[in-house]
Design goal:
The complex is a heterodimer of chains A (201) and B (533). Helices cover 72% and strands 3% of the residues of chain A. In chain A, strand 1 and strand 2 form a beta hairpin. Chain A has a domain of 133 residues: Up-down Bundle (Four Helix Bundle (Hemerythrin (Met), subunit A)). Chain A has a two-stranded antiparallel ribbon. Chain A has five helices and two strands, in the order H-E-E-H-H-H-H. With 201 residues, chain A is mostly helical. Chain B is mainly α and 533 residues long. Chain B is 66% helix and 0% strand. Chain B contains 17 helices and no strands. In chain B, helix 2 runs parallel beside helix 4, helix 5 runs antiparallel to helix 6 and helix 6 packs parallel to helix 10. The chains are: A mainly alpha (201), B mainly alpha (533). At the A-B interface, helix 1 and helix 4 of A face helix 5, helix 6 and helix 17 of B.
Chain lengths: 201, 533
């Protein structure tokens, strides 16, 4: 220091990992929020027609031969909540220094992430649609695949946190908490996607 | 969790390797934020030169729109490169680079937070830019004829945006978490505040473009039923290459001016709150960007319709302008105080932000329905004003903070000379397009157009303007290369600065500060010099 400024002791860490995950979560929210907005705009702009008895207005958005596998979709949603429980268990254990519990919780979190990806594959398989089949199909694959990329990113984050955990980083509470924050945000995003894409269709 | 890295001394085995390769490897792999930032800036300058050359070529063709200087098939590709280059190779990276290089020094941090993220951002950005250029050159791009290359263009655009988001995240986290003890957000330097606000705006807006690209990519690659194929790419993604998204990238330019003003006027900023608010107001552009809407002012319908139209127009178009006006007014007030010390870097940053303001005003005019300017080159003129204005402000910022990064400063006369060329070039390149826009010259067209007016004059002037920008930028790069290597030693505090970056030696050492300081006000270095509040 070339000027006489009062020197300071090394400051306490300012939760850099939490803040970074928070900022990147904003990016994830606007990414999926933007995609959902485009989805809603296309759905609103889909042509409408009267039913044969003249009593209903039908929107030609979801092709009539496509059935959304609601069981698999709802399983994905409940798996997200179960995953949150595990991520929170990891936070709880990390705070109290329960290393084995933390590692186990992270491992289960990773497994539940894989279960979500598996459920998504089941949705694709049960729907039996091709990405080339039409506008709805193309957009369905684009938005759900982007969501899966975010889930896989979360799984990588979980794996890294687990490796740090089993590697003996006992003071890693903040990273475990930041990892949980990411899954909380992802769950909130999936709730919106589930409602718009799987419930409202 | 610590994110500060220390480097081991080069191993003896390196001595065998040619020094140049060692130097290149050091720069390419460095996690030092000052090197990452300088690479961002240097690459954006090279790309700015390329963009201006392409703009001059387009201008030459437009002088006589019936001529065939440029192959008619190549014209749309050149326009696509030009539009992309203005925003993602000139406007956005200039100040992201300056933010990465300067913000950690300003807040008194020993390193940028997550340096590898910033480094990843740099390499993603340049990879994306290279991919886009290759794709467009191979008949890809919006409305391109080669489908595989159109896919590559979309991929490149997404990678470019992801790189900028990564680098901005690193800078934002630094401003939020790595500030020196005692430096509350209220006491954060004005440029760092703009890095926080502008970086956050980038993080919030560019992922929307990435999401749109995901749809377009899947649709274009597999089906081409939902989004209209090659020719509709810009219908869905054009908003990411024009206003109001461009305003998101100028927030840091406005912050740089706000930071320099009090330094050149020699006192503290008495209206600091207004400066903070001004920078924040420019950030409201993010609302217009993420909603992908222009909010046109119309005078049709009843009174309620007119009022509603006026309110949305004002919210989305006028608030960012108000923010720039506040910061410019504060800069002008400081200059009027009589205590101002001549400083070329402040002058050209001030004028650069002035150019940005003209671009913003042009965009507001464009969005008034009665002007009937939509679809004319007036829009291109506004983008040129904003992009070249930001480039000019960036040159001023580099002249200002360069001594802290290189240890030497560029002679004021050279900065004035090169800055004046870029300023004149900006006005010549953009203003004739404003006039041509009023006369009905269509946007996005290079040849085969006609209107009632001196076509050759407006497009000739615009071409000359781009050529002047090339000359001015070359002059500045030349001055920077010579003076930062062998110019006058700047000293640690060449401008009698106020903030922490001026309290460390020039050039700043690897870990920025040998010891951390306690901050007691927004101008800690002034405090240490005994200047009263």
């Amino acid at each position: 220091m070339t000027l006489a400024l009062p020197s300071a002791a090394t400051p306490a860490p300012k939760r850099q990992a939490m803040v970074a995950v928070g900022v990147l979560s904003v990016a994830a929210i606007t990414l999926m929020g933007g995609m959902l907005s485009v989805w809603l705009r296309f759905r609103a702009a889909a042509p409408t027609r009267e039913s044969s008895d003249g009593l209903y207005i039908i929107k030609d958005w979801l092709p009539k031969d496509i059935a959304i596998p609601e069981v698999a979709a709802n399983t994905m949603l409940t798996t997200f909540f179960a995953l949150l429980l595990m991520a929170q268990w990891a936070c709880y254990s990390a705070k109290r220094g329960h290393d084995s519990h933390r590692s186990l919780a992270l491992l289960v979190t990773f497994g539940l992430g894989a279960a979500i990806v598996n459920a998504q594959i089941a949705v694709y398989s049960q729907m039996g649609i091709g990405v080339r089949d039409g506008a709805y199909q193309t957009m369905f694959y684009a938005i759900t695949a982007t969501m899966m990329i975010l889930v896989v990113t979360g799984m990588v984050f979980t794996a890294v946190t687990w490796f740090r955990s089993v590697g003996g980083r006992r003071d890693d509470v903040e990273v475990v908490n930041a990892h949980a924050l990411y899954w909380y945000v992802l769950t909130a995003i999936f709730v919106a996607l589930w409602f718009v894409v799987y419930v409202q269709k | 969790m610590t994110t500060i890295e220390t480097h081991a001394q080069a191993s003896a085995s390196r001595d065998a390797v040619p020094q140049l390769l060692v130097g290149i490897a050091d720069w390419v792999s460095s996690s030092d934020h000052k090197k990452i930032g300088r690479l961002f800036i240097a690459l954006s300058w090279l790309l700015a030169l390329a963009t201006a050359v392409i703009a001059a070529l387009i201008g030459l063709e437009r002088i006589t729109p019936s001529s065939a200087l440029i192959n008619s098939n190549a014209a749309p590709q050149l326009l696509a490169v030009f539009r992309f280059g203005l925003v993602y190779a000139v406007l956005a990276p200039t100040f992201v680079g300056i933010a990465v290089a300067v913000a950690p020094l300003q807040v008194g941090a020993r390193s940028i937070s997550f340096p590898r993220l910033a480094q990843l951002g740099l390499w993603l950005w340049i990879t994306g830019v290279a991919t886009v250029i290759i794709a467009i050159a191979s008949n890809g791009g919006p409305a391109g004829g080669n489908s595989d290359m159109v896919d590559l263009y979309l991929l490149g655009l997404a990678v470019t945006a992801a790189g900028l988001v990564a680098a901005a995240t690193s800078a934002v986290v630094t401003a939020l978490t790595a500030r020196a003890p005692g430096m509350s957000l209220e006491r954060a330097p004005l440029f760092s505040w703009s890095v926080l606000a502008g970086g956050f705006a980038i993080v919030a807006s560019l992922p929307v473009a990435i999401g749109t690209i995901a749809y377009l990519y899947v649709d274009h690659t597999y089906a081409r039923v939902a989004f209209g194929g090659n020719y509709a790419v810009n219908d869905h993604l054009g908003w990411a290459l024009t206003q109001p998204l461009t305003f998101v990238f100028v927030v840091m330019a406005v912050g740089a001016l706000a930071d320099m003003g009090p330094v050149v006027s020699g006192g503290r900023q008495p209206l600091r709150g207004a400066a903070l608010a001004g920078i924040g107001l420019v950030t409201t552009a993010v609302l217009g960007a993420v909603t992908q809407s222009q909010h046109v002012l119309t005078f049709t319908g009843g009174a309620a319709d007119k009022i509603q139209s006026l309110i949305t127009f004002a919210l989305f178009n006028l608030l960012p302008i108000l923010g720039v006006l506040v910061v410019l007014a504060l800069g002008a007030l400081g200059a009027k105080s009589g205590k101002i010390r001549p400083n070329a870097s402040f002058a050209i940053t001030f004028l650069g932000v002035g150019m940005i303001l003209v671009g913003m005003l042009g965009n507001a005019l464009l969005n008034i329905d009665a002007t009937d300017l939509a679809g004319t080159v007036f829009e291109e003129g506004a983008t040129v004003y904003v992009s070249y204005g930001s480039l000019l402000a960036g040159l001023g910022a580099i002249a200002f903070w360069g001594p802290k990064l290189w240890g030497r400063k560029i002679a004021d006369k050279k900065v004035f000379g090169a800055g004046a060329l870029v300023l004149l070039g900006t006005v010549l390149a953009a203003f004739p397009q404003y006039i041509a826009g009023f006369q009905g010259q269509p946007n996005g067209v290079v040849a085969s157009f006609d209107y009632d007016g001196p076509i050759s004059l407006w497009n000739g002037a615009s071409t000359a303007g781009h050529a002047l920008v090339i000359l001015g930028l070359l002059a500045f790069i030349g001055a920077a290369v010579t003076d930062f290597r062998s110019g006058e030693h700047a000293g640690d505090d060449p401008w009698n600065g106020h903030t922490l970056e001026w309290a460390t030696p020039s050039p700043a050492p690897h870990n920025n500060f040998s010891e951390l300081a306690t901050v007691g006000s927004a101008e800690p270095v002034l405090d240490s010099k005994g200047v009263s509040a």
